[in-house]
Amino acid sequence: MKILTSPKEAIEFRKTLKGSVGFVPTMGALHEGHLSLIKKAREENDFVIVSIFVNPTQFLPGEDFEKYPRKLEADFEICKRAGVDAVFTPTAKNMYSEDEILIKAPKVKGYILEGFFRPGHFDGVLQVVNKLFNIIRPTRAYFGKKDAQQLYLIKQMTKNFFFDIKIIEGETIREKDGLALSSRNIYLSKDERKRALSISKALKLAAKLSTKIKDTKKLKEEMEKILDVDKLDYIAFVDRDFNYIDKVIPNNTIILIAGYVGNTRLIDNIWI
Ligand code: PAF
Predict the structure, then answer these.
(1) pTM for the full predicted model
(2) Using an 8 Å Cβ cutoff, are 124 and 58 in contact?
(3) Site residues for ligand 1, CB cut-off 6 Å
(4) What does the pLDDT read at residue 82?
């Protein structure tokens, strides 16, 4: 497995590949969620490239950029075992220059929900994904449904910028008890982890009730009864294009939750 540390090296390596390329962009601290995307990419492409880059521009001041888990050696091992052809691990210095051209997330859908509570976050995500797409020029790129709004915006950027890349979505991978896998789960204490479970339970409850109750306000009330978070940022009902809805639309609804358990901010969602 090749380790590519600069964009130049990655661009040169990419030129040598004849066949389809599956790309899994990550910030490392790989878990089963990432692995399921890598496996999918492995099945569907001749070559697989994973990027590991804790992208500074998508963290807001005061967020967890410094303490975000970094486990490069363990990540390399996971990639090697999964049959990855190359891992791209650039530095901020060789990815960014001063006073560079910036990408802006769309005014509405880039600034609601996650974009409202983390203003500018999606500008940073789209900036780096744009660079990664240009460097790797994948045939297919893989993103998890857990970051539903990110997935939606990346699909939109791919369309708006005419990238010839197929965006493939991966299901959210959960622990046996329902907790959605996240690199941030390691921040949770035992008690917090227990309370964090109320997030997936509330989503599951809403999905179950939604077969009878379509009114999203009523569903939200039921979810709030069982949610045990310290600060709720939002419970939201949107369609697959991230338009708010007040009635559940079967097969075209995403229910999203974001909130803090202790100091850890968690997000989760369910597609119904
Ligand atoms: O989802 C992530 O891990 C990141 O937002 C991504 C897409 C790798 C961009 O830094």
Answers:
(1) 0.97
(2) yes
(3) 25-27, 55, 58, 125, 128-129, 147, 150
(4) 98
